[in-house]
Write a structure and sequence with these properties.
By secondary structure, the chain is of the alpha+beta class. The protein is built from 4 helices and 11 strands. It comes from Nocardioides gansuensis.
């Protein structure tokens, strides 16, 4: 279940000052939101009087130096070019979901639950800079000579994965918006998904891929419904591929080799 994180940039929220660092980590009271703030869960940032400003994936959670609080790392953070309003085009609040709120949304609450369906609606309205719309392009494009090749590799791999998942599950497979964090394809319905599918494509003959910390945490969070599809040996001229590798479950274990290839730094 995705969550809404109220982000106010160091200003007190609900009468308390929290040690948030936007795009890096989020501090919240201990004993209240542990069931919602879980590593690998998707989140959307909401700023009061502005709207939804971005989204990402919850990373590691640890105790805060401040008593009675916890801190979660935030991964794969993207910011909308323009804030998404709290209300949808029809004039209803995205968060006004009777699954979680009986009569009204408690806007003063710093962390709020959000359904997958409402999360997807917010992302479908928001837009991010063109060079950040695809995790796959961002992670893999350094090995390609141009962005067009990267886009073709992505398109071929996604088409191949959709065909494979349709054949396997015999149900509808939805391609998610290119800016969706955690996975690329949804098998089944948003309210009761059968599978979250992450798609990786490569021109290499071997099933190699790049993956962010956030994507890996998502695979752990939903390991019972997670599938990785790696489409390899892609020929962008012929529009073909040689191998499609499918792996279910969290990206841990002896049958998958994961190595750190990049570090995120910050001068303090």
């Amino acid at each position: 279940m995705p969550v809404v994180l109220v982000e106010v940039g160091g200003v007190a929220r609900s009468g308390h000052l929290y040690g948030d660092r936007t795009g890096i980590e989020y501090e919240y009271p201990d004993g209240r939101y542990e069931a919602w703030i879980q590593p690998g869960e998707r989140f959307v940032y909401q700023t009061p009087r502005i709207g939804y400003i971005g989204y990402g994936i919850v990373g590691d959670v640890r105790p805060s130096p401040a008593a009675g609080r916890r801190i979660c790392r935030v991964d794969d953070v993207r910011y909308f070019e323009k804030p998404v309003p709290l209300k949808n085009p029809a004039g209803s609040y995205y968060e006004a979901d009777t699954t979680y709120w009986r009569d009204k949304v408690y806007w003063g609450q710093g962390v709020r639950p959000l359904s997958d369906e409402r999360f997807d609606q917010i992302l479908s309205v928001g837009s991010v800079p063109a060079n950040l719309t695809s995790n796959q392009a961002e992670q893999v494009s350094p090995v390609y000579t141009d962005a067009e090749t990267s886009r073709r590799v992505e398109r071929i791999s996604v088409n191949a994965a959709i065909a494979a998942m349709c054949e396997r599950f015999k149900v509808h497979v939805k391609e998610m918006p290119r800016n969706n964090p955690g996975f690329d394809l949804l098998v089944g319905q948003a309210k009761s998904p059968l599978r979250y599918v992450e798609v990786k494509g490569t021109q290499s003959a071997a099933p190699v891929f790049f993956m962010s910390d956030g994507e890996r945490e998502f695979s752990r969070r939903y390991q019972d419904r997670y599938t990785l599809v790696v489409v390899s040996g892609i020929d962008v001229t012929a529009g073909s591929h040689t191998t499609l590798t499918v792996r279910d479950g969290a990206l841990d274990g002896d049958d998958v080799e994961m190595k750190v290839s990049q570090w995120r730094g910050r001068v303090v």
